């Protein structure tokens, strides 16, 4: 099982289908794409002397060459090591050295990892260079390497907000499972459809190329190489059946643009959102402005994009008596995985009870690279222990509460920050909110809310306190508020609650 067989198949059956498009410009048909991947794979083997099982880094902004290098790596039996383009060069250096990558492909707009000096690297190749063009022009090309289903395909490093990132070993089997689940549970793809890669291709958008190659659909890379709401709507007008993956922060920006500009949406088929909490108020707003074009997924690097899904059908089923609860959930288990909720003792919990989310299935990682202790702990008992806290209802819909480390225990009672954040976001004067706990001498912890006011709003603590008392128990309401201009976020748009807790610690120290 080698994922590259999907590209070879698409090239045989639909050779003239557009495969890679840069904005409005055709970069390659499926015939061209396969020929180029085979040629690069031959160059990897002959010029770079790479062998099946070797790792290569991709430290690149979104561009057509990203897809070429990725699929050529699989064609040659190599493992891709995707590195977010927003990381510091020293962070990229750590990932390359830890993974033992022998080569790294870069784009010229990024500073070279490790200043261009990484211990394990033998070659650092700019994809706009003559060296890259020479590799891509290798005569004849290589045959597709034979790979076992559990051979490494994608070595993804976690964001590392609480320490050194861990390398998640994702296999050909894992990614094939993800692709089939996408088609079964998230969104159907037709041969003339397109996926817009506005989110980082080092993350979810990059592996969502797989189900679209399987269907010989277009891969559209914005000319900007990133996310710009106006550019996205321009691309939607050009490409039928357009879909994209978007973090919740991106969805909010798309909704704001659509509300103010009323762009044409006829070609926009699907926005798959995930990668962070989408609050009920925000998805309701998105649906009212942009219509029934949304699907949600919940996954982790350890089970990429494949734990649960809330389909477009469920988003549209507003007559259901539990519609609000389902819209606030992350959906039901995808077809190839089992999802359970367990207590602290590891015992499975009944419907409605809150505990750690466990996952089992062919999408779950092989393990952590060079970290057997973490692998054993995370995959204990044959289940992926996600570290996320949630509850399953009787119909199998999973509602996330929080990361286990974000749980607040005050006076012996559990408080889930997301529940408080959902209430705060009901206020029209609140643009963003994040809730954390801080030590309290009597209660153990107290609830603190960091709030970003909406433009022009002048709300104060009293209004928010009254709102909370209308909707949640008194002990759950914030005991303190911090009004801030912005919330700290990582490269994927997730709020860094660790930084918020550190800020509170500094305040206590200064006091």
Structural class: alpha/beta
Percent strand equals: 25-35%
Unreliably modeled segments: none
Distance between the termini: 61 Å
Q: Largest sheet at a glance?
A: 9 strands, mixed
Characterize the overall form: globular
In the CATH scheme, the class of the largest domain would be Alpha Beta
Gyration radius from CA atoms, angstroms: 23 Å
- Strand count: 25
| Average pLDDT | 93
Enumerate how many helices there are, as a single number.
17
Query: Judging by the overall fold, what is the CATH architecture of the largest domain?
Result: 3-Layer(aba) Sandwich
In order across it, which strands form the biggest sheet? 2-1-10-9-11-12-13-14-15
**Helicity, in percent?**
25-40%
How many domains? The number is 2
CATH superfamily of the largest domain: ANL, N-terminal domain
Give me the CATH fold name of the largest domain: Rossmann fold
Could you please describe the fold and organization of this structure?
- The protein is an alpha/beta fold.
- It has two domains: 4-392, 3-Layer(aba) Sandwich (Rossmann fold); 407-510, ANL, C-terminal domain (GMP Synthetase, Chain A, domain 3, 2-Layer Sandwich), CATH 3.30.300.
- A nine-stranded mixed β-sheet has the order 2-1-10-9-11-12-13-14-15, sandwiched between helices. It has a four-stranded parallel β-sheet with strand order 4-3-5-6, sandwiched between helices.
- Helix 1 (4-13) packs antiparallel against helix 2 (30-46) and helix 2 crosses helix 3 (64-75).
- The longest helix has 17 residues, at 30-46.
In short:
The chain contains 17 helices and 25 strands. It is an alpha/beta fold and 511 residues long.
